[in-house]
Amino acid sequence: MLRSVTIKNTLRCIKPQHALNTSFKFYSSTSIKKFENIPDANDDSHTGQFVNTVSEPYTVTTYARPKLVLTHGKGSYIYDLEDRKYIDFTAGIAVTCLGHSNEAITEILQDQSTKLLHCSNLYYNLPAGELANKLVNKTKEFDGLHDASRVFLCNSGTEANEAAMKFARKYGKSHGGDSKTEFITFENSFHGRSMGALSITPNPKYQAPFAPLIPGVNIAKPNDIESVKNLISKDKTCAVIIEPIQGEGGVNTIDESFLIELRKLCDENNVLLIYDEIQCGLGRSGKLWAHSHLPKEAHPDIVTMAKALGNGFPIGATMITEKVENVLSVGDHGTTYGGNPLGARIGSYVVDEIANEEFLNKVNEKSDRFLKKLNKIAETHPEKILKVKGKGLLLGLQFKENVEINKIVVCCRENGLLVITAGMNTIRLVPALNIPNEVIDEGLNILEHCINKNL
After folding, report:
1. 369 with 400, same domain?
2. CATH code of the domain containing 268
3. pLDDT, averaged across the chain
4. Computed over its alpha carbons, how large is the radius of gyration of the chain?
5. Are residues 291 and 373 in the same domain?
């Protein structure tokens, strides 16, 4: 009892003081540039007290985080416990695609919570069926998986990839016997942190502490079809998994010609092709799916998704073709929370908003706005910046190895902009898909200032 009282008292004393007026000040490129560098909160601040006494001592070690406690957001702005206002170019790692505190989603949350939150998968529910139907039909309508057939609803991207791996194993064994169980993955890929998904994420930093992982995973080189030919086997390989645009690995767009050849190679060896579109899908690339940019000859057998599908509510999905469905039996896979009515209703709303030509056109217009400025920044620092990468609103600015990009990230945060990094020494920009143009400009001015200051 004493502990709960202590925590309540601590929380009471560290509420943000709005009178402090600690919002960042920054100005558009049409006015005199002035930036106010405000360091991260210290141990004596409200934030420091919360982190050091309430959160950190009771939270399992995972991420290395700055002393920044986010409390609320609206649109493409987010606020912390010190009442500082930030432009958000992270969107919760490409999750809040329609912005923070989206009013329509808030209404859905409130309405559905008065009806039905959970009923398990022992029974059907209306929102889950509607979402599965919508995902299949909208995907076909918007040039995605042309023979999409069924959807498995789950709770995260990792779970979506675990389902894909299980379906692929079942397919392999059904068509090639017990030895057809191996996977091919690619350098710089990221597919999740559970034991199965981690096994196909070939990053020694992530894998080494938890080895041995599942056997039979082979690593090929992106955009190098010969490296795949050297590994694929009709008798042993059940699936190849790849991100059409690698997010965590460095914002690397995979060549269309390579994906066409990869599809052909999988067909020749009766191997399933899995596209992980957890980060690059659902409008992020400027089309509904990253593979919507590709001809049918490069379409996969399985597509995994999550992140944007719930705009912050945990939900994931695995979409399959009929040839995959044909090997599945009752009891092969399941989930307690997957397809819950609340998550499914939110997912349906998100799909309706994004699967819209006008919305996607605006994503591409905003992408052009980003690219124009990013290319200008890169041209100003050719000795430090290698290139601008990505597609749509999954963009990266890759620096040479000797540049400490974390200094730029910290500088941006201290001047009111949140950005994140990716592999290959890349600053990654993944804002809400509906970010206003004036917010893009404000954020890019801060980014330019911090790059100039730290190079």
Report:
1. yes
2. 3.40.640.10
3. 93
4. 23
5. no
Tell me the sheet residues that pair with 85: 79
Confidence of residue 36 (pLDDT cuts 50, 70, 90): confident
| 177 CB neighbour count, 10 Å cutoff | 11
Query: Contact 426/419 with Cβ under 8 angstroms?
Result: no
**SS3 at position 136:** helix
Query: Which helix or strand (DSSP H or E) is residue 105 part of?
Result: helix 103-113
| Residue 392: Cβ within 10 Å count | 22
DSSP state of 52: I
* Contact yes or no for 302/318 (Cβ under 8 A): yes
Dmax (CA) for the chain in angstroms is: 69
pLDDT over threshold 80, residue 33:
no
What strands lie across the sheet with 394-399, from one edge to the other?
385-391, 394-399, 426-429, 420-422
Determine the Cα–Cα distance for residues 290 and 296; give it in Å rounded to an integer: 13
- The verdict on 196 and 317 lying in the same domain is yes
Point out which residues pair with 241 in neighbouring strands.
Answer: 274
326 lies in the same domain as 372:
no
Q: Which of 317, 336, 355 is the last residue of a domain?
A: 355
| Alpha carbon distance, N-terminus to C-terminus of the chain | 53
Residue that finishes a domain, picked among 339, 355, 371: 355
Are 290 and 436 spatial neighbours (Cβ–Cβ below 8 Å)?
no
Q: What distance in Å separates the CA atoms of residue 408 and residue 453, rounded to the nearest whole number?
A: 8
Say how many domains are in the chain.
Answer: 2
Candidates 259, 260, 267, 261; CA nearest to 234 is 267
The backbone torsions φ and ψ at residue 354, rounded to the nearest 5 degrees and listed phi first, read: -80, -40
Cα–Cα distance between 272 and 327 in angstroms, integer? Answer: 12
Count the neighbouring beta carbons within 10 Å of the beta carbon of residue 12: 8
Beta bridge partners of 305: 317
Residues 395 and 441 in one domain: yes
Q: How confident is the model at residue 37 (pLDDT cuts 50, 70, 90)?
A: confident
Question: Are 343 and 407 in the same domain?
Answer: no
> Quick check: 32 pLDDT over 50?
no
Residue 238 identity: C
- What are the strands of the beta sheet with 417-418, ordered from one edge? 70-74, 77-80, 85-88, 417-418
Distance CA 275, CA 196 (A): 16
Rounded mean pLDDT, 285-299: 98
Amino acid identity, position 274 = I
- Separation between Cα atoms, residue 77 and residue 435, nearest integer Å: 9
| Structural domain span for residue 170 | 107-355
* Ramachandran region, residue 92 (left: φ > 0; alpha: ψ -120 to 50; beta: rest): left
